[in-house]
Amino acid sequence: MPLKLLCVIAHPDDECFAFGGALALAADRGVETSVICLTEGTAGSYRGTATSDAELAKLRRSEFAASCDILGVHHHEFLNDPNVYLDGKLEFVSLSELASGLVARIRDLRPHVVITFGQDGGLNTHADHTSVSAATTAAFHWSGSPKRFPHLGPLHSPQRLFYVTTSFFLPGRLNPMPAPWTLTLDIRSVFDRKQAAFQAHTTQSPLELQTRPVFAEHGQDEHYALAAITTPQPATQSTNMFEGIAE
Q1: Mean pLDDT score of the chain, rounded to an integer?
Q2: Model pTM score
Q3: Residue 26: which residues within 8 A CB-CB, separation 6 or more?
């Protein structure tokens, strides 16, 4: 059985902006990658040619699919589709509701490793990112528990949970308080694909242009904090997301 990686995000473009290097590197080594997105990203400032939320949602779904194709993602979906959660409103959805949906998907997809945002909300300190972090963390732990949602399929316990973190900040933005990293991925071999995936989000081209110089200077690595693991151990530095994984 191949190694499996699940990435849980809040908005279309998170998959490339935050996690594109990890997803592309994993795909290149034959890992089966999946991305679950919780909103259609219709509350953002950048709307492209869309004149309504419905038009924007359609555009952003298409962009999300194109980006995932570029990154080599095997499976991508919106949680609770077609009743996708509202962009900018995830903090008002109960933790149990969000986590139960993710528990069902984790038990079905059966990933070895799960990656998502940290509690800082990412480089733009977005509340949706914090909410996704909380729900994914709960689902990571609950998916293997017989006490939690026993009707949602056979139990499955992923072996690693990582939060994306950072070694730099975005100019003009409120700085997050990021977790210290324990994993550094050299993404130079896939950097152009990460950028191409971001550029596939044409509605977000103003953001891509604004951040391009920052990523050109600082974006040759992606940093992650190991948030949970199957056996007690001290924190160490690593360059391999799948180090020690039992297939």
Answers
A1: 97
A2: 0.98
A3: 3, 5, 33, 241, 242
